[in-house]
């Protein structure tokens, strides 16, 4: 059981969290101009980084989406940060 | 072995006597005894029959490593299977049974099997009983081998307490090293938990006369415990750390000898110190499984802990000088002890309760007990579970933990430090966090691994009856990897998990293949370290507490109306109303709802509110349909898709005001839809301009459906009335905090009254009173499903699956017309989505009894059948007067009017494909 730190609620069990996506993966738009292959890549393919990996997670109990950097090899959580400071 | 109790030894209370029975005979022991020590003290030599060959077996070890002495026990009329006699505390009145003897261990009819042993090597059963089918033979073979007998009444009484603990330092193992490390850490101001699986701290110190830091070991142990108490450390005995998981979560199982259920502790420790000790290895020689052959350290344990001398005439065979102490102790206790050079020992045979020793130089000797030691294997399980690697040390012939884990340290014998002084040094290192160079060790050992191609039957795995010859066979059949070896021969797969057998086994494989032991490697260590009762994992989380059910605020009102409750999507809801035969009530409700009206509690329906200046833009993006064109006060049906274009949920959207919408989603999808919407909001929108609130629980939703629904509402004295001009279909009005929506889930004129949950009882009472005058009924979920199916209205997840897109079920327009971007849009135009032969929603019309849900529509292909679709819903309708069904059928719309074959459990029936909506095709009842 891993422990993650929601930037808003603090440390919680991993069962409260959900992996949400890969950082920097943009939604290809508009649909009419997107090749099938590009769309399939967006929907179905996610990088599987060995070592430090920056990811998007959701804390399901509070609903906040945030960034988490964790080491996929040691399972260590290196940092978590709010999504919005980054987008502003 | 002719064990006997000797005075002046042991920490048992001989002033009291505990009586117990083993295989029907009466024996006695004392408080402080384990089942094994009491059996030894009573001179019981054969405690079990071996798993496969039914050979007589005695006690080999003294603790968790014991492979032979496994018993079923009955305490307080409760039977617990597969208990290790060496770790089970003796209780008064215990009834014990050996596992594999018919009728008992001492006298076993199946002992004959051993005579055929050379015809039944590893994998014999799988190779032999392959034709026509293993499962024909399996039951009788399992009966001849299997383990204990589970009792069904056991489970009901099993509620283990589960606790979570947080600490700075968890020390696993309370021997010399563990005590020292715990004390140093606690005195440095850290919060410390010290656990040990025995009933006293001290570990190996309790198994001899030792001096520690210039005082007797007993005084030293007492001093450490007192210091730990003063420093505020928590100490748990009879507690096994059986698993270590991510982020230093360690699970402990605590046994209570007073009959209480075990307690599971989940410890989150910043530093875990492993002082788990080492386990002695047996020697591999012919007849090493004879009753009376025992590990040397186990004999020391029985003497010093329980005052049991395991034999009077003992031969000791050891490859190391650590055993000298054991020999001396046995002598002091009154036994005659002779030492044998390991390389001289040829074989041992068991005859008439005696052991005949044959040495290579031809000498024969008769003894009652053989003590053996093949060196020590550090208990590295938790280190490896945590992801740590092992290093091979040639000087001590053992794998030791590599210092590669930052927050899991191994010390003492578990780190290969079998000398007390060095073990203590390693303990102080761990407490201070600094590694130093340790002093020299003062003991020696020589290699004594199994020698391939030697004669006789030499046991490697005692519990699963794996011999050296089986390992040679595995090597001949190229099962040379240790993981293959394990699964092919079942080496290390019994419930002792190879604690005594894995090292000799892999050493044998190394010798056979000409590799070194580190090249051969170990199998993977996985939790649990010892067998843990499933009840400890379950705790109280069984039955209703496993997944707590959601309840309606009107549950008591429904009960008063004789509702029969069922679980629907996590909610406990009325399935139908009335006692007795269910179908009769369901059919009555479905009929009355169409002729008069039905009243239904739809409170679980989702109510997710969307606010903010970007709310309209947001709903356009998350819905398949264009929603921004809705006028305030209006309602529209639509679909939420995933990015794969598959239907996530369906439902209506109400526009409350310019910047306020309410999503009404399926009751079982509320949480998942709320989460999906919130992720889109934060990912694609300005989170300051659109907000989401799940207000499902604040509202009760009361549904009135049927031709008399308007009359019922208008005569119910609700404080408002409805008329068709002010409230046409797919519109809503608000009245003092009450929202009345004209939406239909049945195809009939229907009203949905949304009130605060607190006021729901009052409204429900008024509506049911008014309904009575019009002959209306209370409508349960089962009847609603019939009403929906009559109109071809789908239930997402039942009539749709992970491939269904909106245009498959008759909603192609937004796909063709909607210009704006929306979730899942691009996926609706892939080659797959464009295929003309996609499965589409249709109805199936049959005579006679209804089709089985899940049965397949088939067509002939070659000599067999091919599925072209399946039945998703099937009911008997009182309103059409017969069976109705919906199906997802390949090219369904093109087949309307066709007769198709429907296959179910070997039977084929014909059905006619029709429109999914079979009642009121022009939807006139919406306004009737």
Put the structure in a nutshell.
The complex is a heterodimer of chains A (88) and B (928). Chain A has 88 residues and is an alpha+beta fold.
Topology:
The complex is a heterodimer of chains A (88) and B (928).
Chain A: E1 3-6, E2 10-13, E3 17-22, H1 36-44, E4 52-59, E5 64-71, E6 77-82, H2 83-87
Chain B: E1 4-5, E2 18-22, E3 25-29, H1 35-41, E4 48-49, E5 56-57, E6 70-75, E7 78-84, E8 94-98, H2 124-128, H3 134-145, E9 161-172, H4 176-187, E10 192-195, E11 211-212, E12 215-216, H5 217-230, E13 234-236, E14 239-245, E15 249-254, E16 263-274, E17 278-280, E18 293-295, H6 296-306, E19 308-309, E20 313-318, H7 324-332, E21 336-341, E22 345-351, E23 354-359, E24 364-367, E25 369-373, E26 376-378, H8 381-385, E27 390-393, E28 398-401, E29 408-410, H9 420-432, E30 459-461, E31 466-467, H10 468-476, H11 482-489, H12 502-513, H13 517-520, H14 534-538, E32 550-551, H15 555-560, E33 563-568, E34 571-577, H16 582-595, E35 598-601, E36 608-611, H17 615-622, E37 635-641, E38 647-657, E39 660-664, H18 670-684, E40 691-694, E41 699-705, H19 709-714, E42 732-735, E43 738-741, E44 750-756, H20 760-773, E45 777-778, H21 781-790, H22 813-817, H23 831-834, E46 839-845, E47 856-861, E48 864-877, E49 882-890, E50 899-904, E51 907-914
Parallel strand pairs in B: 2-8, 9-10, 9-16, 10-13, 16-29, 18-25, 20-21, 20-25, 32-34, 35-45
Antiparallel strand pairs in B: 1-19, 2-3, 4-5, 6-7, 6-8, 11-12, 14-15, 15-16, 17-26, 22-23, 23-24, 27-28, 30-31, 33-34, 35-41, 36-39, 36-40, 37-38, 38-39, 41-44, 42-43, 43-44, 46-49, 46-51, 47-48, 47-50, 48-49, 50-51
